[in-house]
Design goal:
single chain; 330 residues; TIM Barrel; six-stranded parallel beta sheet; three-stranded parallel beta sheet; 11 helices; 9 strands; 39% helix
C-alpha cells in the first residue's frame, strides 16, 4: 500500500500509551513520533521501558512499528502505520559509562538530551542559576554520539551549554520541543542567538504545543502560533523547523510531579516557579491530540505558507534530518 497523504512527524510525545492513542495516531495521519523512553531512569530501568515497547509492537503491529531509520519512517508511511522513534529526555541511561552510548543506539535510541532542567554529568539544564557549559564528560559523549548516530537534543538545556553543544558537535543537533523566547518568555524557550546558531549549523527546532510554553498558555490562538512559526522561519530558515508537540495524553498529575522532581528533590518543583503550574494545563482548543495535526497545517496555509512549505514543516524537514543523523558518522 502506498499512501498519498502528507508525511506528519511529531518529534516529542510522552503519553499514557494505549491502543486508543495508537488508533488516534492513525486517524490523524501521523507518520512518526519521537517518544520519550526516559526522564530519570538509569540503564536497567530504561531497558525495561524498551521491553514494554517491544510488547506493544507485537500487540499493536497493525498500527505501530519501530522507527530506527528514515527508511523505517518511509515504510510506515507507505503502510499506513506510525513509526515509533526512541529518545531520552536525560542522559541518565548512559550513567557514567560512555560505552553505553553505542549500546543504547544499538537498542534503538536515536535522541538523547544532555540535561533535563538540572545540571547533569554532561551539561547544564535551563533551571540552573549558573551555566558552566559542556563538561569534560559531555565533550566525550558528544563525540561518541556523533560517531554512532545518536542525535544531541538540547531542549531542556541552558543557553551556554546549548551554544557549546552546537559548536562542539560535528553533526547538526536538535531542539526537539521548545519555542522562541521572543514570542513567549519561559526558561526552556530559546533565544535568538541560539536559534540563529542552530539554523546556521543545519540543526532542527521542533515547535512545542505544551501550553506553559505558549503565548497565552491554554488560550493560545492558532493564528498567533502560526505567526510565530513564520517569524522563526525568517530567523533560522524554513528548512530547519518542524513540530515537536510535547504532547501528553492520559497521564495523571502524579506523572508531571515525577517529571519535575525525579529522585533529586523532596520538595515539589513547580516548573516556572508558580503553584499555578502544579498539574497539567488545559488543552488547546485547536490541538487536543493526535487527530488535530491537520489544524496546524491549515493554520499555516492561512498564514501564507505554500503547500510544499507546509509539508516541510509538518514532517519532511524532520525526515531529511533523520536520513543524515541516525546512522554512523562517515
Amino acid at each position: 500500500m502506498t499512501s498519498d497523504k502528507p508525511i506528519i512527524i511529531d518529534c516529542l510525545q510522552y503519553c499514557n500509551w494505549s491502543r486508543e492513542i495508537f488508533e488516534e495516531m492513525k486517524a490523524g495521519g501521523v507518520t512518526a513520533v519521537h517518544v520519550t523512553i526516559c526522564y530519570h531512569e538509569q540503564f536497567r530501568e530504561t531497558i525495561q521501558n524498551m521491553e514494554r515497547w517491544n510488547r506493544w509492537f507485537q500487540e499493536h503491529g497493525d498500527l505501530i512499528v519501530p522507527g530506527r531509520s528514515a527508511g523505517d519512517v518511509r515504510r510506515a508511511h507507505e503502510d499506513g502505520k506510525t513509526a515509533i522513534i526512541f529518545g531520552f529526555q536525560n542522559c541518565s541511561p548512559m550513567e557514567d559509562d560512555i560505552g553505553l552510548v553505542e549500546i543504547l543506539h544499538q537498542l534503538g535510541a536515536r535522541f538523547m538530551q544532555l540535561s533535563y532542567n538540572n545540571q547533569s554529568l554532561l551539561a547544564t539544564g535551563c533551571y540552573e542559576a549558573e551555566d558552566p557549559g559542556i563538561t569534560r564528560f559531555g565533550k566525550q559523549a558528544i563525540r561518541e554520539m556523533n560517531r554512532v548516530g545518536m542525535v544531541i537534543d538540547m531542549s531542556h538545556s541552558a543557553q551556554r551549554s546549548t551554544l557549546e553543544a552546537i559548536d562542539l558537535s560535528e553533526r547538526p543537533i536538535a531542539i526537539t520541543h521548545a519555542n522562541p523566547a521572543f514570542w513567549h518568555t519561559a526558561l526552556r524557550n530559546k533565544s535568538d542567538e541560539v536559534l540563529k546558531a542552530l539554523g546556521e549549523s543545519g540543526g532542527m527546532l521542533g515547535f512545542s504545543l505544551y501550553p506553559f510554553h505558549l503565548n497565552g498558555h491554554s488560550n493560545c490562538r492558532l493564528d498567533d502560533f502560526c505567526d510565530m512559526i513564520a517569524r522563526t522561519a525568517d530567523l533560522m530558515g524554513l528548512d530547519n523547523i518542524g513540530i515537536g508537540t510535547d504532547l501528553v495524553q492520559g497521564q495523571p498529575d502524579s506523572i508531571v510531579e515525577w517529571m519535575r522532581n525525579g529522585r533529586w528533590s523532596l520538595e515539589t518543583d513547580y516548573g516556572e516557579g508558580s503553584k499555578d503550574n502544579a498539574g497539567w494545563p488545559g488543552p488547546l482548543a485547536w490541538f487536543e491530540g493526535n487527530r488535530d495535526f491537520g489544524n496546524i497545517a491549515e493554520g499555516l496555509k492561512a498564514r501564507g505558507f505554500t503547500e510544499p512549505e507546509v509539508d516541510n514543516v509538518m514532517g519532511l524537514n524532520w525526515l531529511r534530518f533523520f536520513e543524515t543523523s541516525f546512522g554512523p558518522q562517515d
